[in-house]
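Exam revision sheet. Question 4 asks you to relate a sequence to its structure. Input first:
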Amino acid sequence: MAGRKRRNRRRRKGRFAFLYRLVCVLLILGAVGAALAVFFKADHIEITGNSRYSNEEIIAAGGIEQGDNLYMLNKYEIAGKLTSTLPYVESVRIYRKLPDTLCLEVRECTEMVGVEQDGKVWLMCHTGKILEGVEPGAAECAAVTGLTLADPQPSTPAVAAAESELALRQLLQLMEQLQKKEMLGDVQAIHMEDPHVITMRYLDRFDVEFPWNTDFDYKLNFLSAVVGRLEDYEKGTLKLTEDGEAHFIME
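Answer key, structure tokens:
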């Protein structure tokens, strides 16, 4: 009997110890939460990388208010609001600078292509995001032909009409590599009507022919090497349709 009583006392003590620890943890969490609510407020908001949109536009679009708690803000929600509300915002990095500063590093799309249809030119970033529709001739960018978009809308991903799905995939792959190699700004046009080759107007001197479903990383490196060997006055057609070979037809 005595042994059973001792065991019961130990069980009761164990239960009380568990409850005591639980209460302590809850009190600590409550204190931390209260401290976070009182301190670490976004008294300052620093925004960098923006040129098209003002600081005020970015703050409003992100739903940010001065004095918001730095640790209660949902960074992913803010970034999502910015990229969906402001078409030219490509991405946003959000971080805290304690004790009172919220920092936003904005990356805007500065180089794009234009797809003309239905009396408008739809501008598209290399990520495939539709930026806006403008009047023909209103924007200086590479013109894309041979591609039809399905119901393009600003701040939404580009969707191709059924007959243009392959063309859109190839275009985005090409644009991604052009952007990485800082070559997109030197492209005047991309023609995708021919079922055998994609023709790109480059440096306003060359019509560069690529095969469909090619390795654009390799082809663009090859293009840069070939162009580097040509004289500044030379211009014409560069056929890169065969691996490891380039055929230059001078005008």
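Marking note for examiners. The chain is about 35% helix and 25% strand.
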